[in-house]
Inverse folding.
C-alpha cells in the first residue's frame, strides 16, 4: 500500500519576525525603523500577507495527505522523500534555495507578494492551491536546467541559477581554467571569480554580467540544455591571461578549474554558507547537472 503524498511547505522567516526577534518587541522594532525613516506598518502588512498565504495553502491540502513545514534556514538538515510535493510559499529566490535539495519532486511556487516579485518561479497565487494540489501529480511541469560543480575529492554542489567559483570575500582568485575537449588549452588567471549560470539565472546575476559585457552570446531559456560562463574582472599580467573569459557550455561540456590559491570556494544561488571548500592543487568540473527542477507551470 503506497503512502499518501506528503506536502512540504517551504517558507522563510519574514522581515517583521526577524526585527521583533532582534529588538525584543514590536514597539522597539518600530522605533528602530522610524529612526531610519521607515514605517513598521509596511513591514507588518507584508508579514500578515505571508502568514495569510501560508494559512490558505495549508487549508487547501487534501485531508488524506500528510504535511509538514520547513523554514529556509533548516533546508540543509531536512530530508525530502520521493513522494513529496514541495510547495514554496514566498519569493522566487526561495524556489532556488530549495531546488538543490530535491531529486525530481514536483514544485509549486506560491507568490505571497504579487507585484513585488517577478513571479518567474512563484507562478501561482494562494487561492490557486485548492485546484492545483489534488492534480499536481498529473500537472504539466517545466524541467528547469540546473548547474553543478564537482570537485576531485567528490564534493558536489548543485544550483538552479548559477555557481560562483572564487575567493571567499570576492578577493583575487588564482587558478588555471580550461574547457574539456578543447585541445588541452589551459590559461592561468587572476580574477574576481568565475560565474556559470543557467537560463533561470539569466534573470539575475548572469544577466547583469552579460549586459555589462555586451556579450554576443545569447541568453539561454530556463529549459535550454546549455549554460553560460563568465570570468569576472580577469587581470592581465606576465603570468596570467584574459583570453578565456566567456563562453557557452552544451549539455555534455565541462569547464575545469584548478586552484592556485590557498583557498577558493564554490557556492550556488548566493548561499555562501553552504560552499565547497577548495585548496591549492584541487580541481573542480562545472557543467549541466544530471537533475532538473520540476516546476509546476
Amino acid at each position: 500500500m503506497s503512502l499518501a503524498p506528503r506536502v512540504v511547505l517551504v517558507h522563510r522567516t519574514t522581515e517583521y519576525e526577524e526585527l521583533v526577534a532582534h529588538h525584543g518587541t514590536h514597539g522597539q522594532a518600530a522605533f528602530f525603523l522610524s529612526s531610519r525613516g521607515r514605517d513598521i506598518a509596511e513591514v507588518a502588512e507584508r508579514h500578515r500577507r505571508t502568514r495569510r498565504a501560508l494559512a490558505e495553502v495549508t487549508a487547501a491540502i487534501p485531508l488524506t495527505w500528510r504535511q509538514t513545514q520547513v523554514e529556509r534556514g533548516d533546508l540543509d538538515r531536512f530530508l525530502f522523500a520521493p513522494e513529496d510535493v514541495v510547495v514554496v510559499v514566498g519569493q522566487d529566490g526561495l524556489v532556488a534555495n530549495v531546488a538543490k535539495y530535491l531529486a525530481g519532486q514536483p514544485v509549486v511556487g506560491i507568490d505571497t507578494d504579487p507585484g513585488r516579485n517577478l513571479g518567474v518561479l512563484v507562478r501561482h497565487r494562494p487561492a490557486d492551491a485548492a485546484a492545483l494540489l489534488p492534480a499536481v501529480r498529473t500537472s504539466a511541469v517545466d524541467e528547469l536546467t540546473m548547474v553543478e560543480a564537482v570537485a576531485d575529492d567528490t564534493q558536489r554542489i548543485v544550483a538552479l541559477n548559477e555557481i560562483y567559483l572564487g575567493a571567499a570575500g570576492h578577493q583575487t582568485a588564482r587558478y588555471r581554467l580550461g574547457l574539456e575537449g578543447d585541445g588541452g588549452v589551459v590559461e592561468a588567471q587572476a580574477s574576481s571569480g568565475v560565474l556559470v549560470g543557467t537560463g533561470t539565472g539569466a534573470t539575475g546575476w548572469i544577466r547583469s554580467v552579460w549586459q555589462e559585457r555586451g556579450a554576443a552570446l545569447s541568453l539561454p531559456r530556463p529549459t535550454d540544455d546549455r549554460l553560460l560562463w563568465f570570468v569576472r574582472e580577469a587581470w592581465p599580467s606576465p603570468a596570467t591571461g584574459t583570453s578565456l573569459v566567456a563562453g557557452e557550455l552544451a549539455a555534455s561540456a565541462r569547464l575545469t578549474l584548478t586552484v592556485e590559491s590557498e583557498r577558493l570556494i564554490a557556492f550556488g544561488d548566493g548561499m555562501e554558507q553552504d560552499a565547497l571548500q577548495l585548496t591549492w592543487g584541487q580541481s573542480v568540473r562545472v557543467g549541466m547537472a544530471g537533475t532538473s527542477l520540476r516546476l509546476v507551470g
